[in-house]
Structure formats: C-alpha cells, structure tokens
Design brief:
The complex is a heterotrimer of chains A (245), B (288) and C (305).
Chain A: E1 6-15, E2 18-28, E3 33-37, H1 44-51, E4 59-64, E5 67-68, H2 74-80, E6 82-84, H3 97-105, H4 112-125, H5 141-153, E7 159-163, H6 171-186, E8 190-195, H7 199-205, E9 208-213, E10 216-221, H8 223-228, H9 230-235
Parallel strand pairs in A: 3-8, 3-9, 6-7, 7-8
Antiparallel strand pairs in A: 1-2, 1-4, 4-5, 9-10
Helix pairs in contact in A: 3-4, 3-5, 4-5
Chain B: H1 2-31, H2 38-56, H3 60-82, H4 93-116, E1 129-132, E2 135-138, H5 139-161, H6 163-173, H7 175-180, H8 185-207, H9 218-232, H10 237-257, H11 260-263, H12 266-277
Antiparallel strand pairs in B: 1-2
Helix pairs in contact in B: 1-5, 1-8, 1-9, 1-10, 2-3, 2-4, 2-8, 2-9, 3-8, 5-6, 5-8, 6-8, 9-10, 9-12
Chain C: H1 2-22, H2 25-50, H3 59-74, H4 80-102, H5 107-127, E1 137-138, H6 145-168, H7 170-180, H8 182-187, H9 192-218, E2 220-221, H10 223-226, H11 229-242, H12 249-267, H13 269-286, H14 291-304
Antiparallel strand pairs in C: 1-2
Classes of the chains: A alpha/beta (245), B mainly alpha (288), C mainly alpha (305).
Chain lengths: 245, 288, 305
C-alpha cells in the first residue's frame, strides 16, 4: 500500500479555552475526493488551517507526500502542492482577477509575464474570462467563489482543500462545482471538501467521508455506510440527511 | 527607602495615567479606532489649565467641568463629522482611521502651539507634600490620583449600570448583535468617542499640576496610553489600570536610575517591548 | 503615448541636470527640497502603499543616514559621496533586523511601534557622545549645494525607477497581495516575511541615502532637524495626496505640496502643522485614493463612455 498523499495523524489544537480539534486523523490518497462533513463549528475550518500551516497543532502530525509539514510556513506548504480556498471568500479586492490568480501562478512560473499568461488560462478555465481585467472587488459572490478556486488551481496543487465551496451557490451552480471537482479528481488532483450540508452532493462526488463533530472524528467510511451511522445522525440532531434534497 | 518613595510616586502617577488610558481604551474597545490624537487632548487641556491659572489664578479643579465638556463636544464633533465619513477605499478601516487621527494630532499640536506658544507650563498648585516618616507624598499627586480614581469609578458605574453603558459594551463585544438589538451604533460610537476625549481632557487638567508640559507633547501621552492599554489588554478596563500602574512605576524608576536623557526613551522602549511581548492579537494573526 | 511620455521624461531629466548651471542659489535650494520631499514620499510609498504596512517612523532611517554621514565626514574625514552612500547602507542594514521584529505587528500596532522606534532611535543616536549629544554636529565644508543637489536628484530618480520596477514585477505583485490579505497571500505561496522585510529595507534605504545628503546640505545637524516629524508628516501627506501604492502618486503629491509646504513652514510653522494635519484629514475623507487614481478613473470613464 503506497503512502497516502495526505496523512493527518492525531491532531489536537485548543485556543481560547476551547478544544477545537481532538486527536483527529484522516488520510487522503492521490486523486481521491474526501468529504469532510460536520455541523458548523465542528472544526472543519480549523483542520484546514492546520493542514495549510496557518495554525500549528498542539499535538499530532500532518504528513504530505511523506514529509511532515507541521511547523512549515504556509507559503512553503502551498509551494509543496497544497492549495486551499476560504469559506468566506477573500479576494485581493484591489487587484484584477488575473492578478489575483497570478499570485499563485508565480510559484511555478519564472516570470511575471508567464505567471499572468498562466493565470489567464486558469481564469478562462473557471469561466471568468470576461472579467479577467476587472478588479476582483467588482465580482459577484458566485464569481468570487470561482475566483477562489482559480487562485488555488494556479498553484498546480496535488491537493485541494475546499472549505464550504458550495455555500451560497444555487443548486445549478452547486452541480457545476461538483462536476468540476470530479473533473479535477480525474486529472489526479485530490480534494478534501469541507461541507456542512447538501448531502446529495457529498454522496455524489466523494469517494470517502470523514465526519467531524465538536472537534472529534466520529465516523469515517464510504458514503453509504456513513448515512446509516447512528453517531452521525445524532450529531446532526436527527435532521434528515436529505439525500433527495 | 528611595525605592519605596519611587514606588509611591509611580503608583500615584499610574493613577492619573490610568485615567488618561481609560479614554483611549474606550475608543479602542468600542470602535477599534486608535486615536492618535488622544495625547493632544490631554496636553491641550493641561496647557489650557496652566494658561488660565497664569491669567486669573483659577484652580484647575474648577476648570475640570469646563474641560470635560469641551473635550466631550470636540470628540463628538470629530467623530460625527470626520471619523464616520471615512470611505473604505484607501486602506483598511483601521489604517484609515489611524491616519486620520494622525493628521488630527498634528492639527491639534499646531493649534496648541499657535494658541499657547511653545513654552513649558504647569500649575504650581498644592506644591507641598505630606510627610509620612521618611516618605513624602506630594499633595498634588495625591489629589490628582484621588480625582482620577473618582472619575474612573464614575465611568465604571456608567458602563455597568446605565443603558448607555450597556449599549457601549454591546457594541464593542458584538456589533451585529448590537445592531440586531436596535442599538443605534453610530450614536453609541459618537458618544463613546466623546467620552473618550472628555476623559482625556479631564486627565490633562489634572496633569497640569503634575508636569511641566508644552503643546507639542501630546504624542508622549498617546504613546503612554497606548502602552497601558496594550499591557492591560485592549478593551479591558481593569487590566488597563494594572497596566497604568506598571507604566507609572517603570517611569518613576527609570528616570531615577537611568538619567534624564535616556529616560526620555523609556516610555517608547517600554511601549515597543509591550507591543512585542504582550499576548493577544497584536503579533500578526495566529488563527483564521 | 508611451514614447511621448518617455521623451518628456528624458527632457525633464536633462533640464534638471542642467539646472544648477543657470539657476541662482534660492531656486536650486527649492529644487533640492522638492526632490528631497518627493524622494521621501517614494520611500514611504513602498512599505505603506505597496506593502500596506503604514509606518509612522520612517524618519528614523532618514536621521540615521544623516548622522552616519555627518560622523563619517566630520570625524573620519571621508569624502562626501561614499559617506552619504554609507549612511543609506547603514539605514538599510538597520532596517533588516528591525523589520524582523517590528513587522510582526499589524496595522495600528506597527504604525505606532515604528513611531516609538523612531523616537527611541533619536534618543539613542543623540546619546552617543560623538554625535554632539543633542547640541549638534558640525560638518566641515567640502561639498556644496550642487553636489547635494545632484546626489538627491540621482536618488530621487532611482527611487522612481525602483517604484516603476516594483509596480511591474513579481515582487510588487506579491507585496500587493500581502497588502490585500496577508494570510491568503501566504497560503497562495507568497513568502510574506521575506517580501515584507525587503520592502521595509528598501523603504529605509531611500530615506537613509537622502538623509546623508541632507546632513551635507545643512552642514550643522541637530536631532530635531533630522529626526523631523514635519518631514515625516510631509512625506506621508504627499504620498497619500498623490496616490498611495501608485507609481506617480508621490511625484504628483510632492510637486503639488512642496511649494506650499516650504512657503508655509518658513512663515507660519504652527499653522503649517495645522494645515498639513487638516489636509491629511480632509484627503482621507474626500480624496482617499489620491490624485493619480482619481485622474486614472476619469480617463477610464471617458474611454468606456
């Protein structure tokens, strides 16, 4: 069995007196789509922050492509191939759409011209070509979500951390995003998709699911099994997991 | 014995610094605005009190109500007419309000110099001292300390037990929540800023019989207030009192041990050390 | 359009180079002060405009450059040019460790921390006995206004060229990303620490070099003259007036403000502070992005109409 692309091993972190994560472990393989689900406040974003290097865990390890990345500066982790999007989109407002994406492209491009060219390609790829030279602050929310993804893609990542990338989208847009993630998976880019609800999409796109609640991993497995897991149902307070919704 | 004397001086100084820092803290706590002109309010009030004393022999304590009201009105106008109107384009809200109060500070310094000139002035009031054995407690300092304590307690009362105080606390803790509860945030902020400047001018009036000051020294008091607030924790009023005591003691000891010229750097050094070493969200961001 | 602008720029430079041959002392003085102010504004623009770290203490580097040059010329009898150069290098070298420490602070804490730092530097520099300890340092004559003028012209031109480069380079893009959102920039692969410190060092080098020239200009330096809050305030206002984070902003701001500034300072020092302070306040409310972006927007609107 080959080494997983990403291995989170017993990660714990507390701040402000709250134990945000308790001994969370998970694995992601090349090209795999892992859905990280859990109610709001379960620790999904915190886990993304730990993996991307924004936060340092109090205990545990994070290994990417076999190397421990705990303690690495975020930019180093990004360069190694881990790209993340933010739940609340944060574009570089005063920069153009192309420039927003070019920042990430600089990791692989030698010159800024090359980076901007690469960025244009990615911008076109996510369907924002018409807005390429407009300031990012002029985009609508949906467009900004696409920009988030474009920025992450410009890093040519091996692993994408998508934090609530579906939030705020219409059902059609969500389907589009889901297709997109599947498409990336086919091209060998793994993804961890943090999703709070919209279970039908989770069922559709994920190879495996990890469930977080109050900072702990309470379930892990393939989609069908997770659906019927009593711990998972309880964590969602008995709310139907809405496969049909 | 010298140490005890220095300590007492430091504590008394700390009391007045606490009052000054209180004004600064109110503004920061409620609006996340760093009022760089804070010290200028303090100093202008002091210089004004000294000036009036020189003109008509009037006791600075009697001027206190006047300076408090003047500070309040000035602060209200500044917030209502200027701070509220900052568009968010040039930089973050923080940077904009910072730069605005930076400009305001120079404006006030210039106004002070133009009105009162550049001489160092103070009010020679209560220059005597109580003697407790080998320790002498300067009367002026003690009085200033007492008034500062009274005013601080009054403010604490307002904060805890009045509707306005609740509104202020709500706005500083949770803006959306406060809005949802129907708090007129703009008005609360204007009032908070006005209270902040009023407290600053009160502190300044008291300072007039503690220090020799001139209109250019506002910055020093801003830095002091900033340091106090940072030590104690931003928006934390009791912590600020502790911070003020620390700063008062530090300044008292520093000027004795290190000598006048280098002691000039002491507040700034302390300020920087505090900024770098203090916990809390000062040093970049740890969490998203 | 671009060629016309380049020709114009070349013409201006030629005129400026030839100026001392034709103009009288007063005019050269004024020209010198203008170039100095513009240069300082460019220095401030890098750390505050491009990197977004507003600093209220860059004057520390100006003062360090001035005193370093002063000491080298007065005590060690260096020739003026290497001395002024050394002043800049020293300021830049100082900025690197300082930056590591101070740039951890964000927003208002950095701004005020730098202010405190500048005051501390002032006190420390003037505490060194060699600097005359506050009573001033005399520089022997050895360079006239002409040399200082050319030096400052060169530095100013260099600052503009540097800014043009930053604006177009990968470094500049990284800086601006950092300014917009430092955390996100980090997770997009930007080494924010390195970028910040480089920007800070450049923002110290320019005032350091200019300070060296200023020492030679004054020939008698004392702390308040070179650690001058008025020069600090002035460069900030000029950069903001012209357009923070733009290439031509500090130039426009400097040209517009210097004439007014000098006239005011000479006659009404207190009113000066009031006017500049008040102007800064008014700018932030009415014209926050400065002149250059406002004009650029006007052009863009006309093109799209």
């Amino acid at each position: 069995m080959t080494e997983p692309l990403l291995a989170v091993d017993g990660v714990s972190i507390a701040f402000g007196g709250v134990q945000a994560l308790s001994e969370v472990s998970l694995e992601v393989r090349d090209g795999e789509i892992l859905a990280l689900i859990g109610p709001n406040g379960a620790g999904k974003t915190t886990l993304f922050n730990v993996i991307s290097g924004v936060l340092r865990p109090d205990a545990g390890d994070v290994r990417f492509a076999g190397r421990s990345i705990v303690g690495w500066a975020p930019h180093r982790i990004a360069r190694a191939g881990v790209a993340r999007t933010y739940q609340i989109v944060r574009p570089f407002g005063r920069l153009s759409v192309v420039d927003n994406v070019a920042v990430g492209a600089l990791v692989h491009a030698r010159t800024i011209e090359r980076a901007r060219n690469d960025a244009r390609d990615v911008v076109g790829f996510v369907g924002l070509g018409a807005y390429a030279d407009r300031p990012a602050s002029s985009l609508t929310l949906t467009q900004r979500k696409r920009l988030e993804v474009a920025r992450a893609l410009a890093l040519r990542p091996k692993l994408l951390l998508l934090d609530e990338v579906m939030a705020g989208l219409t059902p059609t847009e969500m389907d589009g995003m889901a297709e997109f993630v599947l498409h990336l998976s086919e091209r060998g880019i793994a993804a961890v998709a943090g999703i709070e609800h919209v279970m039908r999409l989770v069922m559709r796109i994920s190879h495996r699911i990890v469930v977080l609640d109050a900072g702990r991993r309470i379930a892990e497995g393939d989609p069908a099994a997770i659906l019927t897991d009593p711990a998972v149902i309880e964590a969602y307070l008995g709310a139907p997991l809405g496969i049909g919704g | 014995m010298i140490l005890l004397q220095l300590a007492i001086n430091g504590v008394l100084l700390g009391g007045v610094l606490a009052l000054s820092a209180l004004g600064f803290n109110i503004v920061f706590g409620v609006m996340r605005v760093v009022n760089l002109a804070h010290g200028d309010f303090v100093v202008l009030a002091a210089v004004f009190a000294a000036y009036e004393f020189a003109q008509s022999g009037i006791n600075p304590l009697l001027l206190l109500p006047l300076t408090i009201v003047a500070g309040f009105v000035a602060g209200a106008l500044i917030h209502h007419l200027l701070l509220r109107r900052l568009p968010g384009e040039i930089a973050s809200a923080e940077a904009s309000s910072l730069t605005l109060t930076f400009g305001l500070s120079y404006f006030l310094t210039g106004a002070g110099l133009a009105t009162f000139g550049g001489r160092f002035v103070s009010v020679p009031y209560l220059t005597g001292a109580f003697q407790l054995g080998p320790i002498s407690i300067p009367q002026a300092r003690l009085l200033a300390f007492a008034v500062a304590v009274v005013l601080s307690l009054a403010f604490a009362f307002v904060l805890r037990s009045t509707a306005l105080g609740r509104a202020i606390r709500a706005t500083s803790q949770n803006l959306d929540g406060a809005l949802a509860c129907g708090v007129d945030v703009d008005r609360v902020r204007t009032l908070a800023f006005a209270i902040g400047t009023a407290v600053a001018t009160a502190a300044g009036t008291l300072m007039s019989f503690l220090y020799n000051l001139n209109a250019q020294q506002g910055v020093l008091f801003t830095v002091n207030a900033f340091a106090v607030v940072v030590i104690g924790g931003l928006g934390n009023y009791t912590g600020a009192v502790l911070g003020a005591l620390v700063l008062g003691l530090a300044e008292s000891f520093a000027s004795y041990f290190v000598g006048a010229t280098l002691a000039e750097a002491a507040p700034y050094l302390l300020f920087i050390l505090v900024l770098l070493l203090a916990p809390g969200g000062l040093r970049g961001r740890r969490a998203a | 359009m671009k060629r016309a602008a380049a020709v114009l720029a070349a013409l201006v430079i030629v005129v400026l180079i030839l100026a001392p041959l034709r103009l009288n002392g007063y005019a050269i003085n004024l020209l010198y002060i203008t170039l100095l102010s513009i240069g300082l504004a460019y220095g401030w623009n890098i750390i505050s405009g491009y990197a977004g770290y507003f600093s209220f203490g860059q004057i520390a580097f100006f003062g360090v450059g001035a005193y370093a040059t002063g000491l080298l010329v007065a005590d060690l009898h260096w020739f003026w040019m290497p001395a002024a150069f050394a002043g800049g290098v020293l300021a830049c070298a100082l900025a690197i460790p300082l930056g590591y420490v101070m740039l951890r602070l964000r927003g208002p804490f950095f701004a005020m921390g730098m202010f405190g730092m500048a005051q501390m530097v002032r006190v420390l520099v003037t505490a060194i006995p060699a600097t005359g300890s506050g009573s001033g340092l005399f520089l022997p004559p050895g360079s006239g206004i002409t040399e200082v003028y050319y030096w400052t012209l060169a530095i100013c031109a260099g600052a503009i060229a540097l800014t043009i480069w930053i604006d177009r380079s990968a470094f500049g893009l990284r800086l601006q990303a950092l300014r917009e959102d430092e955390q996100v920039a980090g997770t997009l692969g930007v080494d924010t620490t390195r970028a910040k410190i480089t920007a800070f060092a450049l923002s110290a080098l320019i005032p350091g070099l200019l300070g060296g020239g200023y020492a030679l200009f004054l020939t008698y330096i004392e702390p308040d003259a070179v650690f001058s809050s008025r020069l600090d305030l002035q460069s900030i206002v000029m950069a903001i007036l012209g357009g923070l984070g733009t290439v031509w902003g500090p130039l426009i701001g400097g040209l517009v403000m210097t004439q007014i500034s000098e006239a005011l300072w000479a006659r009404f020092p207190q009113i000066y502070l009031m006017i500049f302070g008040g102007l800064l306040v008014a700018l932030l409310i009415a014209l926050p992005r400065g002149i250059v972006p406002a004009i650029a927007d006007r052009f863009a609107a006309r093109r799209n109409a």
